[in-house]
Design goal:
Chain lengths: 388, 314
């Protein structure tokens, strides 16, 4: 289905990543946003609060992030594409309801414009340290999807993608921006509405009599009935059966939770997205995401000038993790270098998938700025020399 | 128009302030707060009141401009132990401090210093719970009616009609009556403060410092940045708010003993609204505002007549 032109601001713009993300949401058909002000993410909802009245959307500034996330889950159950926007401390407060959204299989998008942490940390400065929290922040076993844009243009493009994935897999999608991508201003081209593919909510074709809210019929996700459409309606955070009713049994837990996991893991190849460059004959491959990918480019050039064959992988979808890719690379290269603006988070996953087949070297940075490219280059050169 | 007399030149940055609190004023020279900030005046008043009462305090501050004030070390750090809490949790954090202070038989007040976002919105659950338990805490809300620290979004203290970055065409909901909510908790003392009425302000701080239990103080705190007003008009603006009945000065003991501290002279609230660009919006209903001022004060007057504070002193 094509995007509704009313939400699409077609043309070439000069936008920051936060505004571009807001535009992406509106183009994707998002018409309900609930949020709470927090630096450096507030511009997303400020943009939306100005633009929503022109397209019949509703923005509510909620009283906190618990409420914001809960309202988004509620909004989504009416069939309206819904989103919230926050940063680290607010992301922490949202975790219980993110788990609820995962358990209820609620399509929604959670934007986290990452800043330096932990706790209040560096409110106005960059960080990439919520990568693991995005995956594991709520209790229990569940799967989510997480994406990471590297530019305002991608903030626009991938926000649409995030909504589409959340609809296809009925899962909360974590949109992991960072302060620099959020606040940097660049050219953003918004295509005409008829060139934007959006996935509508997959409403059930069944009658209210035959409909069961969590029956999957061989598809990855159940069909959806909107609250208020006359279908028997029961959804819960409790372990539930196909009818949506709580069932406290080992068998039901296995059926219910396993499907939550497998709808993502079984489709990981379809969901995973990355950009690969010069990995074919590389000795060292740099694995990055978000703003760090752009910094790493300069580091890669520096290392190449010093004679190292370096390739790069930029993860666009972070979760599910590009497991297959990393396993393959690990068998071919001498080392994988993982710069990220945290003290070593996604590198753990790279290490797990490399399984000792090559060296895995983190390039840590506590946050507040991007890496010095020379520092990354140094690790690349050293990795090549040591492995030789 | 009444002009506000300019304050006499203050002490130099390296000199000690004329009225020290304990050792230093809470708010030190060199801070980076905006000109005309009501919170800055409030902090100074609080520091002086503590000094006069010969008391010390610990400050518990959630996310708000007040914690940014303490941030730019070494120029402006508070001269007392200060905890920066998470946004929703200052009263709960203070509960912990106050409880252990009692266990350890220590002196000193535990004072929460929070903005309207941390009080009316995200922090109201922990504040309500602390009030219900009647924790031995002074809670001061400097209400500038906006999320100032994050660049000016609406809060539930933002008055109807005001434009903010998240209510670009003017807010449609009325301001929450936080005093009524706290009074309903029957806390030992709840009072409103205005920097345009410093003697009243001072007396109420004194009263709060002489008591125990949860004491709630609500300061109408002008914010030229968020209100889009002239920095030099801050005191005049909140004076107009009291004079027009938009903001009433009163105090309530134990939830049912009322005393009104200033009668409005029924200045037209338009005089208050028109000096703030945030009210330049079609959402402002002047007639309704005028009526609301009268009705609110009328209701308060009836409460004060029906349930007066009997004792002469605070």
């Amino acid at each position: 289905m094509k995007a509704d032109p009313i939400g699409v601001l077609t043309g070439a713009h000069y936008l920051d990543g936060d505004f571009a993300c807001g535009e992406g949401a509106m183009a994707a058909g998002c018409r309900f946003v609930a949020g709470y002000p927090i630096t450096p993410s507030t511009e997303v909802v400020e943009r939306i609060s100005r633009r929503f009245p022109t397209m019949g959307g509703t923005f509510i500034q909620m009283e906190d992030e618990l409420a914001s996330m809960a309202a988004v889950v509620g909004g989504s159950w009416t069939g309206t594409k819904s989103m919230t926007v926050t940063s680290g401390p607010g992301f922490s407060l949202m975790m219980e309801n993110i788990g609820l959204a995962a358990m209820m299989e609620t399509p929604c998008v959670v934007v986290n414009v990452q800043r330096g942490g932990p706790s209040t940390g560096l409110p106005t400065m960059v960080g990439q340290a919520d990568v693991m929290q995005a995956r594991w922040g709520s209790h229990g076993d569940y799967e989510i999807i997480a994406m990471s844009p590297q530019s305002p243009q991608e903030a626009f493009d991938l926000t649409i993608e995030a909504f589409n994935l959340s609809e296809i897999y009925r899962v909360p999608v974590m949109f992991l921006m960072d302060e620099i991508v959020g606040h940097m201003t660049e050219r953003v081209v918004i295509p005409p509405a008829d060139e934007i593919e959006v996935v509508p909510r997959a409403l059930t074709g069944k009658t209210p009599e035959e409909f069961e809210p969590y029956q999957i019929n061989g598809k990855p996700t159940p069909e959806f009935a909107r609250a208020g459409d006359g279908y028997r309606f029961h959804t819960t955070g409790l372990t539930h059966d196909e009818r949506g009713y709580p069932e406290m049994s080992v068998e039901c837990q296995e059926r219910c939770v396993r499907r939550l996991l497998e709808k993502i893991t079984d489709n990981a190849d379809r969901i995973v997205r990355f950009e690969e460059e010069a990995t074919d004959d590389a000795e060292v491959v740099v694995v990055t995401y978000g703003i760090t990918a752009r910094v790493a480019r300069l580091a890669i050039d520096m290392a190449r000038r010093r004679g190292v064959k370096v390739g790069s992988v930029r993860l666009i979808v972070i979760w599910p993790f590009a497991e297959k890719l990393i396993r393959e690379l690990a068998g071919k290269v001498r080392a994988l270098v993982v710069p990220e603006i945290n003290y070593g988070q996604l590198v753990l996953e790279v290490e797990r998938c490399a399984a000792g087949k090559c060296a895995v070297l983190p390039v840590s940075h506590g946050g507040g700025s991007v890496h010095d490219p020379a520092v990354i280059a140094e690790v690349i050169v050293k990795a090549a020399a040591e492995a030789a | 128009m009444t002009t506000t007399p300019r304050a006499p030149a203050g002490p130099g940055i390296l000199e000690k302030p004329a009225l020290p609190c304990s050792e230093e004023c809470l708010l030190r020279p060199g801070n980076t707060n905006c000109g005309g900030c009501g919170m800055s005046v409030g902090l100074t008043m609080l520091g002086r009141a503590l000094a006069r009462a010969d008391q010390t305090c610990s400050l518990v501050i959630p996310a708000c401009c007040g914690i940014v004030t303490a941030g730019a070390y070494p120029t402006t750090s508070y001269g007392v132990p200060t905890v920066a809490t998470t946004f929703a949790s200052a009263p709960a954090f203070a509960t912990g401090i106050a409880s252990v202070r009692d266990l350890n038989d220590e002196d000193g007040q535990v004072i929460c210093w929070a903005g309207d976002g941390g009080t009316y919105d995200i922090g109201i659950a922990t504040l309500s719970a602390a009030a219900e338990r009647n924790e031995d805490i002074i809670y001061i809300c400097y209400d500038n009616e906006i999320y100032g620290n994050t660049g000016g979004q609406r809060s539930s203290a933002t008055p109807a009609g005001a434009r903010t970055t998240t209510t670009p065409t003017g807010k449609s909901e009325d301001k929450k009556d936080m005093m009524a909510i706290m009074v309903a908790h029957r806390v030992p003392y709840a009072a409103t403060l205005s920097i345009a009425h410093p003697e009243d302000f001072e007396r109420k701080l004194e009263a709060a410092l002489s008591m125990h239990g949860l004491r709630f103080l609500l300061l109408h705190s002008p914010c030229p940045t968020g209100w889009k007003s002239e920095q030099g008009e801050s005191v005049e603006l909140v004076r107009l708010a009291v004079a027009s009945g938009l903001f009433s000065l009163y105090e309530v003991w134990n939830g049912d003993e009322y005393r009104i501290n200033a009668e409005p002279d029924w200045t037209d609230p338009a005089k208050y609204l028109e000096r703030q660009k945030r009210f330049e919006s079609d959402a402002v209903d002047l007639e309704r505002t005028r009526l609301a001022c009268r009705r609110r004060f009328d209701r308060l007057g009836r409460l004060a007549r029906e349930f007066p504070r009997e004792t002469a002193t605070a």
